[in-house]
Structure formats: structure tokens, C-alpha cells
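dude i think i finally got it to work??
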Amino acid sequence: MTIQTANLGFPRIGRNREWKFALDGFFAGTLTQPDIIAIARDLQIHNWKLQAEKGIDIIPSNDFSFYDHVLDVSAMVGAIPEGYGWSEGPIFLDTYFALARGMRAHKSQDGTIRAYKPALEMSKWFDTNYHYIVPEFASDQIFSLTENKPLKAFKLAQVNGLHTRPVVLGPVTFLKLGKVRDGAIAPLDLLDKLLPVYVQILSELSLAGADWVQIDEPCLSQDLSEFEQQCFLRAYGAFNEAVPALSIIVANYFGPFGDNLKTALSLPVAGLHADCVRGDFELDTLLQEVPDSLTLSLGVIDGRNIWRADLDRLDALLEPLRKREQLLSPLTKRTGHNIQLAPSCSLIHVPVDIASEDELEPGLRMGLAFATQKLEELSNLAQVVGGKRSEVEPKLRASLQALMARRNLPGCYDRSVRGRQNRISSDMYWRKSRYPERRRVQQIKLGLPLFPTTTIGSFPQTAEIRKARSDRKKGLIDDASYKKFLREETKRAIFWQDSIGLDVLVHGEFERNDMVQYFAEKLNGFAFTKKGWVQSYGSRCVRPPILYGDVSRSAPMTVDWWRYAQSLTQKPVKGMLTGPVTILNWSFVRDDLPRADVCSQIALAIRDEVEDLETAGARIIQIDEAALREGLPLRKEDWRSYLAWAIEAFRLASSGVDDTTQIHTHMCYSEFNDIIEEIIAMDADVISIESSRSKMELMDGFSNRKYPNEIGPGVYDIHSPLIPSKEEIEKLLSLALERLDGHQLWVNPDCGLKTRNWHEVRPALVNMVEAAIRLRSQTAVAAQ
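look at this
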């Protein structure tokens, strides 16, 4: 049996986040464009050679991106909205980054004045925590090849002695991820205009010596209409006709093919990749339905989680493969019927290498596999499935020992946590009164004005704050000195918020390294890495905690910091917590318990913290569920189950308080229209959402459903360095008022301000407050 190993993509950031620091240096002006181009080249070469050393037969190229692989396609095919300084030819980095981060009004190199342009929208890449830049099209869109980026990467690998398989995001998925500005047509109506550009890309790759190309179409894991399925047939029929010598493998991941398998098998392509982690039940169907002439790539190593694979279990799972091979004719075998073993998806969703994690508990460390280790697992598994088990027998024994050590980790099973879960009663999921009654008593107690202003929670994590945290970790300063420093930062933030007239304050979260990690470090059942970084977007990286055991809270986590902040002002200071679903979705989660059960454990711990904050005197408590929609399954038939336990977890965490306590939540990058009933069912008194980039379009669902509670649509895009003017904020607020009653409306930024600088934050929030005050005045005049 011919067994090859293939990889779909490797982390771009570098083992030590070299790419993050390169981008940050470029944005700060300390690195030049040639500097970061050289760093990008070296990272790609290093990644290719590493994969070759680990025994990977098929190595991807063009999996590297300067910011985002979806934005790369927009730039490559000329899908650049007007006003960003491009008309034809290659896309320069200043235009590329302007699309991702926005563009201040400035004079360009050719002397022309470029006007202010906001960044394009950002959204979640399917159900992951990776963010992509949403393609933006016009109904009369003209596509053209600006530069063949996959060809450039392929040639770079060639000159370094490596023959790679170029990766390209597929045309159907690319268009489905985008939006048409005027809404006159659907994005897929542009397919016939786009296909000639893709044909040109593929033709040039073929002429350069590429024999295979991987085209990623993860939307094959979603519900597709008949029209969308026909789009696939048109696209790949055009490719086969134009470039018949090029072998195309269509890669589907993040879920099984399901009812799209028939469409996938109808495509005139040379291979298919299947996610056999999320779709392991589909393997038998694939082996029966996929013709012997088609290369089949089986994604059996989990590309989205960090647990070591059970190679013996995978060997047993692949046993039908051996039986199938025995039934093939000698002629079929001689023609090279090909099976590839691969990760389920690109490895950009896991850290680079576990080699640096020597501080982890040995039993836990043995049970982990990051991207580099997953390559080794692939190589070992290929040996086993290919009939060479004896050559890797020691590694299989080590794998078994690691799995056993993980099962016996202290804290993996906690009798008291399981017992408390069993005692959860139905009344614990509900507030004492319905929202109208709560709103009445909260208005009396809080006395807030119309259009109350607040922020989402965090303030800039300055270099001084990061240095103090690092110095404390290194033992250069003691705990008392560190706490004193943080109290001073908190005091300055409270006094400044008071001075500009914000109505509801936050303490700034200077003591927190990350909105999930901070809580995970104070809960039982979590472990942490030193360099387990994963790209979230651009230069933004996160270090997800490892949730390996039963979760419980030993002591209050935020009460002291809230109490200190509240002592400095007469205005209400929000208690700031991260919700159970977000802690779950932004961690690497144990795979030996249902996620719903793990989430309810976290919810009980957060419930305890909510009640302690209320007892301490907090009148407003915010429980952020930034990642609730992110965990939504790709198939609508699976939504009900997920949303049922996710909404229950939020209510379990938030419902133990009196009516007078106002519960807020915040949600990121969420298209709410299709889950608006569930958002209502969360029953938060106030929800804040990101809506500035969409120009309040995300509010339509709340308006159409007549959302009953209060809502803070973001009016300040915190993912861009641009400072919004009062007029821009007023315009967004006026758009919000077209959709909401004024008594429902709060005024706040899109998200937390941790990643911004104070010189950006101060004027932006001043403008926000003044815009709200002006709106109050206008509303009062109109009422007279």
C-alpha cells in the first residue's frame, strides 16, 4: 500500500513569534519593508526544511501570509475597494495593511493626498479563533491577477531545493466569505468573473513545474444550496478544461462532507482531503464511495487541539483501508493508487513546538503534541499503516505510556466537582424577575443618563505594565511592589475616566495577562505554556490555556481589584469576568469529557465569582461571551444542541444575583441574525457588540426581532489604530437609532482596549463621550 504523509499548512508566526515581532516593528517604524520581506522569506524556508526533516512527503507552500490568507486572495485577484490607492498592478504593502488596519489621511509617495479609510471588516474563520479580513466586492467587480503569490512561494521553495504543493484558497469559499457592498447581487454571482484569474494562477503554476495544487474549500463542511453546489461543478470543470495537466486536490476541513460528498465526488479533480477527526464516522463511506483512481487524503491527526494522538486507535480506525487495498486489482496498485495521511486541517491553529515547555508537569507534557510533534506523529502513523510497525514500535510504546500518564493526572477527576454538577437545579438557570421589572429597579438604583457611556473592560497594556509583569515573574520585584505598581495604574485609569465624563467605569484590567488566561490561572484544572502561541490575527497572538482536569474555584479572583477601584469613585465600576463558553472555546480543551459538561463546571466557578462581587457591592457585572458564536457548529442541524448548553452555561453563571444587579455581556465578531432568539434567551440586561466596521449592519437582527433588552453597539473600531472623530461616532449612533429605541442604547467601543496605545485611546474616548453628550442634548431638544 502506497502511504504518503502530507501537511496542509504550518504555523506562520515562528517558534519564538518572529513574525509577530517583525510586523510590530514594521508598524512602529523600526523595521523597513525589506526587513520584513527577508524575515518572511527565512521563516518560510525554515518551515519547509523542518517539515522535510520530519518525514513529510508533501509539503505545502503559500501557507504563509503577511497578515491573513483570505486578505491575500483579495489582494491577488484585485478585489480592492475604491479609496485605498490602487488601480492596477501589484498590491504594495501600504495598501495591503491599510485594508487590514485602516488608513489615516496622508500624502502618499507620489504626492497625492489619500483620504482616511477604515479597515475592512474582520470575522472568524469558520468556527475557529482565527480572524480573517472579509473580502469586499462591488456588483460590477472586475477581477485581475495583481501578482501570483502561490507561484512566488513555489519558486522560492524550488530554489531552496524543495518541491512543494502550493496551497490556494478555493474560489467558492473565498466568495462565500465575502460581501457585496451594495447588496445588489450575491458574492457567488461573481464566480464567472473570478474563474479566469484562478485559471491564470493555476496555469502559471503548472508551467513552473507544479504537479499538484491544494485548493482549500472548507465550505464543503457547511450547508450548501443547490446553486452553491453547481458553483463547485462550474469552477472545477473550468480548471480541468484549462489546466488538464495539473493535479488538483480539494481540501475540506472543520467537519465531514455530509451531503456535499456527492458534489465533491463529481468534481473533475485528482484528489480529496477529508477531516477524519471531526468526521471519523465518514471514513467507511469515503472508502466505499471514493473511486480507486482518486487520491484520498485522510486528516487523522487533530490540527486544532494539542493532545497526543492515540496511534493504536488510529491504526484500528484505518484497518478498513488495508482491507480495501487488498481488494484492489494489481493494475490499480501498479498505477499508484495513493493514500495520504495528514492533519485534519492546517496546523496554524496549534503552537509550533513543545520543546520549550519544560515547566509543564511531566505527565501532562508527555500527552501533548504541537505542530512539530504532529508531523512526527504523521510519519510514525504512516509507518504503522504501511506495514512497518516494527520500525516504530518504541515510539508506539511511548505514545501509549503518555496516554496512560495523562489519564492519571492529579485533578483530572474531582469528586466534589462532579457532585456539584449533579446537584444543579432548574431554578439556577433563571433570574428572579423578568427583564422589564429588573430594568425598572436598576434604573432607580443606578441613575444613569440616556445613552450611558462605558468601555468594554481593558485599557492599554503598556510596555511598563508588561515589563513589571515580566520583572515579577523573574523575581526582580516582589509581589508587594508589583501590586503597588498596578494599584497606581488602576488609580490613574479611574481618575481619568471620571475626568472625561464616562458614566460606567472599569478598573482597566492591568493585572490581567489575557481575558481567559487570567481566570484559568486562578481555577483548578488548567495548565499553561511558556511559548504555546497561536495566531489570532495579523501580529496578534494568544496563548490558550490547557484545560485538562475538572474545573473549580478555590478563592475569589477579582473581588479585591474591583473593591479597590470602586473605592476611588462614586460612579459605578463594572465587575469584569470572562464567561464560561469563552473560557472553553479559547482554551485547548480536554477530549475525554463532553464539552457541555466541561462548560457547566466553568459556569459554576464563574457563578461563585458573580455572587461574591455582588456581595462586595458591585452594581454592574459584565460576563464576556466573546466566543459564544465562534463555537457554533458549521451545520445548522447541529446548532440546537450546542446553543442549548452554551446559553444554559451563561445563565447558570449569571442568574444567582438580585434584580437590582445589572448583568452585561460582550460578544465579538458575531453575525447575530440567525441566532437572535438564543441571544434573547441569554437574558443579559445589557449586551455590547462589535458593529463599527459593519456600519451597524449587525444591528439589523436586533431591530427586526425587536430586541427587548439594552444594547451597546460598538462605535470605535479598536482593531485599527485610527482615532474616530466625534462626527464619525455621531453618524454611527444615528444609524443605531434607526434600528433601536434611544432608551435601549449604550455607547461604547467595539471591544477591549488592551492592544491599543493611550495616545489613541484618550482622544477616541473623549470623542465618544462628547458625541453621546451631544446626542442626549439633541434628544432632549427634540422631546420638547
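The two ends are 83 Å apart (CA to CA).
im so relieved honestly
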